[in-house]
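Fill-in record for Peptidase S1 domain-containing protein.
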Amino acid sequence: MTNMLFPVKIFSTEEPYFCPAVFISADSLLASALCLKMMQPVDDHPSSHMFVMVEAEHVFYYEGGRRYINKIFYHPKLEDEPAYHNVAIVKLRNPIRETVTPNGQSIVACLWSEMNLRSDKVYLGEWFKYQPEQNAAFRWLDLPVMTRKECREELSKSKAIVPEFDRGIVESQLCVRDKKNRTMIEFCEARSSGPLFMTLGSTVYVVGMPTVHIDDCNVHIEVFNRVSSFLDWIEAIVWPHMEMP
């Protein structure tokens, strides 16, 4: 995963923080809808202040590599069940010119279309160790996938109350836990989470998107929504003229 140029960051000129995202085409990205909602005032158009950093990354100086956002599509069920539909499609004003860099780094991830994964290990790229006026540190975590039963048992054991999961952990979600405990060492500190990836050979797939942050330091798991459960909605927006088989 170290030779891949994702996830990327979505910034606003009006806010000091960012939202992790992943390119799924030359002009479209997936991101957390709840994160973007915090960044976008109700009456403001995103193109006036929101952009993606691609070729350069300067958190506080915004130099080079900007791709301004044209429109954000929020999942239609976001307001009703935010934890189960925390996903948005971000369309750029202008597409990126190349999806693969000269040294072979991929910028675009594929969408995983099946409910079941073909690997028992997934990857999370996250930023952590936030400091004032400094870039956050970045790391890749390789995470084993838990069963829904294990996930429910972990939440029950920790006695965590997560009102957003009013339907419990459902089939359209997946849970992970860091086997090396690196995430959990600093679990109570600010960290970004972000898209969840799986590799098959040299192909990288995005398989999950964040749900909600469980604000309980006794909970040592993370819950993601499966990208496959949003596939029809995503494809209709990103590739509206694609012929269905």
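KEY FINDING: The chain has four helices and 13 strands.
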